[in-house]
């Protein structure tokens, strides 16, 4: 029995047990829409923990927060009341990541690594701020932090279903293709990791030349959520095979321009667009995909540095291909299906055609076949914005 046949039988059994996902292809009879949304919800990549860190006008103007093994630290300001001209910075220990915060800020942008330095910067010498030291309302209090999981913790927290890894795991670090397939590698640059509310992850990407980002509706859907979301560009391994990562460029989400549950998309903007313009952009294709055409998927599965799905041990010739150009999504025929490997956290990834390097689908479901929303339908929905 072939691997494809075994997957179809397994999918049918899953449907009979719970009706969770559309495991069967479009020619296998009536399909059940994938209602088990939680199976492809944003992946948890961090844990919020209590903290009690204070900076003030009593002489304590710098503290280091340490969580051994953490992949990042993100601090929450419970209180920040500073004299005019004073401010706080949260920085990495080497100073390469360094951001300023003023009265009214709440969550700081994450700092990569397991240590973060908090510094209260005073416009006047502390001896001249002695009066403020006597006023308990003044100063800064950090009441909680979001601690990014280590690689081992992330693996333990990621709910995995082998049906989303169709056969063996054929994903590789994106940089593995830098020399062997430079055009494919170049089209990974506009793809970003999302850190949502300090704890969960999806993938997103720049669509068009303007300040526009696209991800799934099930990742987030409101402007409030967007502004609580960090967008990481350039988060990838330095060399093929893992290890050290490049320092990401982090910006915050801003305004949701359009969102839809049935097509499972959210189009949004980012703050500080100039900081990420050089990462380039992708284009939506306005055609229906062709059965059997080659494709590839840049993604951030389970919070990992940028990966690429190009190869597939479940497809003819060993390459990822379109299985069905019109497949059951949240509605009939709204998706493109494929056996290209994906995982939790890959939600929101672009699915690109090898022939044009344009986006033919917005990935959102696993199940082998995995599937994404058709780009031609997305173009009809958001073309006026991009």
UniProtKB/TrEMBL annotation:
<dbReference type="InterPro" id="IPR009003">
    <property type="entry name" value="Peptidase_S1_PA"/>
</dbReference>
<dbReference type="InterPro" id="IPR043504">
    <property type="entry name" value="Peptidase_S1_PA_chymotrypsin"/>
</dbReference>
<protein>
    <recommendedName>
        <fullName>V8-like Glu-specific endopeptidase</fullName>
    </recommendedName>
</protein>
<dbReference type="Pfam" id="PF13365">
    <property type="entry name" value="Trypsin_2"/>
</dbReference>
